[in-house]
Amino acid sequence: MNIILLSGGSGKRLWPLSNDIRSKQFIKIFKTENGGYESMVQRVYRQILTADPEATVTIATSRTQVSSIHNQLGEKVGISVEPCRRDTFPAIALATAYLHHVQGIPEEEPVVVCPVDPYVEDDYFTALKALGEQAAKGSANLVLMGIEPTYPSEKYGYIIPENSGSVSRVSTFKEKPDLAAARDYIRQGALWNGGVFAYKLGYVLDKARCLMDFTDYDDLFAKYDTLEKISFDYAVVEKEAAIEVMRFPGQWKDLGTWNTLTEAMVDSSIGNAMVDPACGNVHVINELDVPILAMGLHDVVISASPEGILVSDKGQSSYIKPFVDKIDQHVMFAEKSWGSFKVLDVEPESMTLKVTLNPGHQMNYHSHKNRDEVWHVISGKGRAVVDGLNQEIEAGHVISMKAGCRHTVIAETELKLIEVQLGKDISVHDKEKHVLG
Amino acid sequence: MNIILLSGGSGKRLWPLSNDIRSKQFIKIFKTENGGYESMVQRVYRQILTADPEATVTIATSRTQVSSIHNQLGEKVGISVEPCRRDTFPAIALATAYLHHVQGIPEEEPVVVCPVDPYVEDDYFTALKALGEQAAKGSANLVLMGIEPTYPSEKYGYIIPENSGSVSRVSTFKEKPDLAAARDYIRQGALWNGGVFAYKLGYVLDKARCLMDFTDYDDLFAKYDTLEKISFDYAVVEKEAAIEVMRFPGQWKDLGTWNTLTEAMVDSSIGNAMVDPACGNVHVINELDVPILAMGLHDVVISASPEGILVSDKGQSSYIKPFVDKIDQHVMFAEKSWGSFKVLDVEPESMTLKVTLNPGHQMNYHSHKNRDEVWHVISGKGRAVVDGLNQEIEAGHVISMKAGCRHTVIAETELKLIEVQLGKDISVHDKEKHVLG
Fold first, then answer.
1. Contact partners, residue A35, CB within 8 Å, separation at least 6
2. Are A371 and A391 in contact (CB under 8 A)?
3. For residue range A82-138, what is the model confidence (pLDDT) as tens digits?
4. Complex prediction ipTM
5. How many angstroms separate the Cα of B399 from the Cα of each of A402, B387, B388?
6. Does the distance separating the beta carbons of B344 and A290 come in below 8 Å?
7. Closest CA to B129 of B53, B52, B194, B200
8. Which residues of B, range 393-422, sit inside 8 Å of A by Cβ?
9. How far is Cα of residue B103 from the mean position of the Cα atoms in its chain?
10. B345 in reach of chain A (CB within 8 A)
């Protein structure tokens, strides 16, 4: 199976666990069999490889997510990086070209496209495989997954099939309806459109060549920023007559709000939390080191990260966005391909961070114009390079770097640093990368 | 007016704002006229000096609170430090001896004793003055304040007066009753016993000399740890026949729980907080730098400090103690006489703190057996002394101190340091003080 996972942008609906750098699909919230936690993207990736160990998985995403994807999925996963945001048609075209020109997948093979963040069981991936097989048959150019609705939702588009068979031609599409229309569609046998579909690789490649002038993946990548923003629905689906829908009767959840996300939690709390017996339907997700105590609450979600603290009635939590939009602060934590960082303290002319490097990893060789930095190694072993000079480092070592000085650190074991930044204009944008000679 | 304020021990009922070091009376929660915030002890001290600018105020407290008292009230306030906890009679006797032998107050003068944490208006302090004047008349050995009850509380002891006059002999005392008994007492004209009373200084000094063998304040202080634990009620009040009660009809609140404390808040939030319009009767006290967002909650208090986060139904908040007793962690922040510190990060063999020194102040000259320390100056100017060597310091300076090395820092302006501690057994108890030569 060739599968393209669309990994969307920065969601604020799951603040404070999602932020400008960490999208909701990277929050580790789902309990695994060994007692740890995995994120949506880790869960879906694991489920795909369980259903089909031979699957070629390509994640279509933006540059900002590459570090998190490598950190969570390792280096083997394919990534089609959009140089800038250009809506779903260019993104799917680029990923399809990547499959063909980089991964060598032939034009006759089917490709399945689905969002990276559905909360589903293993039968969903069996259905994805069947979707690809149906596309390979060639009885239609596009095969959509139609999810059997469990309630008259106003959040999804609807697909009306011609008949109630397992596979049917599509009669018509309906935009997100109001409640009454949703009820009416369901009476007509409509299915939810979850944005999941399959096609033969050559079909989308041809459509892309028609609309955008390019020779291969590298060429398309190079001119990506000149492309028009256009959705896959508008560019392809609405103009295509030969579309089939394949019915999916299994469980499918879109965990887009705290309310729906907490429904998928096995335990009532993750992290350092105490929930008193007077609480009912309370969920706590605490990424801070200090304890959260919840007492006498009902239908409440509490979520804390280095970015902030949310305490919300579960129903009310879907209205979070305008409030989070008002919050203007530094990114306080991030996962990088080499490890992670967390901001410990912010002052007008200084910032203190904790930096953790994974064993065998290193950050970019870089310099800053407007700030001095000091690293204090608090655990682990490795090597620092400062202006070309190598130095073995371990707990207790202090390395000072003036503004302009080039530096990196390479972890031998897991390596933790306290980094103190000093300067008048401390900014994440003040960073120049260099080649480590 | 000579007034002894009893400043009690570490309350856990207002966790996470109170901890083993900071008692509830030091939490800055009351809005002042200039838009800042003051603590209970600051509010009461200010109110006393407004009612009587000549008042001699002595705070009877334990060693652990001395730093906070000086930090919040300055150096002028009198402090009678109990070398160890020995209940209220030895504490009041020691403070009374301090007034006589150290402050030179004659035995004939009245002394008023009251807890440091009532939430009251100015009329209360006028009443305290009247209480002292009544004691000075000598028609009784003890004059108690009787607070007119506003509801049949089960939390307070009751005083039954002989008559309903402004001043009356006491008929009898009643322990904390159940609801029915409380209603019955109130029908009999009973008053709340708020632990406020006045006496002529010599009266308590005589009682103390009878029960404890000592010559003067210094002698009593020296043998304090040998004294028996005994309450003032048991040692004095219950054995005294000549007791009067003076009626206080004004507002008096005991802000011992989050529920009662939030009633005294002018604004619904303190610190970085957003409360959405769907919330009702929600209070947020946030001592962290990151925002708290509250949505759709009712009758809830949210309180966050570097120690942890409480989210509680207001009524439920009075049952907090057993949960907080289960929390076992480092003290994460503290006010000291010289400034404050906050723990930023804790690892098995390191700890990172932010230390703030007030201008002109310095910490003790000290050393640690089991940890190395590094200071990174992030703002301000001052002087560090390390093993007797002086060094001017300012933002950007890094000072390394190996275990065993003696060190202190003296702030010229406000001075902020990041302190990184490294060692196998990091503990607040690993500290030896030295004399700065």
1. none
2. no
3. 998 888 999 999 999 999 999 999 999 999 999 998 899 999 999 999 999 999 999
4. 0.84
5. 16, 12, 14
6. no
7. B52
8. 395-396, 398, 400, 416, 418, 420, 422
9. 22
10. yes
